[in-house]
Write a structure and sequence with these properties.
Layout: H1 11-21, E1 25-27, H2 30-37, E2 46-51, H3 58-72, E3 80-86, E4 92-98, E5 104-107
Parallel strand pairs: 1-2, 2-3
Antiparallel strand pairs: 3-4, 4-5
């Protein structure tokens, strides 16, 4: 968000910009972002990274981002949330769901984020 001049902005401001201007939002703040995106009828996608406390580093962030790009595969992610969770043992869980909706597409497994 720094390159848009939005560093330090409130989550609802960033969400509004992403939704209105057609950005896929990538966040490490899953809980707040899900709440804000849950109010939207239409959005181009949300990518959320979840990690065990103290685990996120720039290296892991880049690896998980590459994993997200691979998982999306160039597909449009209309009204989808892609969550990538890395636990303390570095096991990775990927969940892709239609949101807001009751439809849920989930894939579980250990994936090497490298």
């Amino acid at each position: 968000m720094r390159w848009l001049g939005l560093a330090g902005m409130k989550d609802h401001v960033v969400t509004r910009l992403a939704v209105d201007d057609g950005y896929v939002l990538v966040t490490h703040n899953t809980t707040d972002s899900r709440g804000l995106y849950g109010r939207e009828d239409l959005h181009v996608g949300l990518v959320a990274f979840n990690t065990a406390p103290g685990l996120m580093s720039l290296d892991l962030q880049m690896r998980v981002f590459r994993l997200a790009l691979s998982e999306l595969g160039g597909e449009e992610a209309w009204n989808e949330v892609l969550e990538i969770t890395v636990d303390a043992d570095r096991a990775v869980m990927i969940e892709r769901s239609v949101f807001p909706s009751s439809g849920l597409l989930i894939r579980f497994g250990n994936v090497d984020p490298s």
